[in-house]
Amino acid sequence: MSLASELGDSQEIYSIDECFIGLEGISDVTQRAKDTRAKILQWIGIPTCVGIGESKTLAKLANHIAKDAERKPGSYPARLAQVCNLAELTEHQRIYLFGITDVSEVWGIGRRISQQLKEAGIQTVKDFIQLDAGTIRKRFSVTLERTWRELHGESCIDLEEIPAPKKEIAHTRTFGYPVRDLESLTEAITEFTSRAAEKLRRQQSQSSSILVFIHTSKHRPGPQYTRSITVPMVRPASDTNSLLSAAVRGLKTIYKPGYDLIRAGVILVDLTSPAVQQTELDFGSSMSDKTNQLMQTIDQLNDRYGRGTIIYGSAGIGKKTWSMNQQRKTPCYTMKLRDIPIAVG
Question: Is the pTM for the entire model greater than 0.70?
């Protein structure tokens, strides 16, 4: 992402392997994109594709064309492989590409909408853009009309350089072995809540409720059990103590012995900004300040010395029976000496 950011003057990291780059005022963008792609491949060894368009939706569509032109020879012109700049093509060339692209490939058109469009005889992107905007709004939605306008080169989706805070924060895991006892489940929920609380504090939010769930596997023989509960907080909180107290209380409420539980997790919901306070009549906030300082110190120590340096007692110590199976985990070639491959022979 750092190397990709050199392509333009602004960047929105959309996911772990995808980002949008603002190219306003940048000259010779196609060659710059090719150079940036080559640099990422040389420095990191990761092959990438670049799609360029007047809007986010067009850029996503161009990226799809760049990928398929390389991976599926014959699907698109070979010269569009790896880097596809729709902005430099003629209208005739763009319409040709839209005519051979399925409408389901458009960003923002999901499976359900795609099916509805095809039932109405709209099979390709070309068919879609030739519709009337008012018809789309009346028959489908304003959101789909926005997608239509984006495909016509009208930028309707802003570049978000600062990621929006998450509305929910979850930490869930599948156990390496089935868990039956409450003690092991409490250990797991303690760790999950602690990790979720760290993420919550990192984005500077507070949680008003916490959802706890446990369930068996439908693929395993035996009785099935699935339960969840949402526990409201007395007041929005981000400290692990408060969240953990609510999570364990919820777990004890839904736990029932006699089942081989294979998965559990916590989800922090109803997130708010610390600027929004729900207070009670009390005499000072010294305890709150001390709690915040404690959480900050724990986070700093775990960041510096490694995850799990400081844990809560209810998380247990030693080997966990509920830990994930990771026999096929990719070795840490660049971080651990023992994982460096050694040639033999």
Answer: no
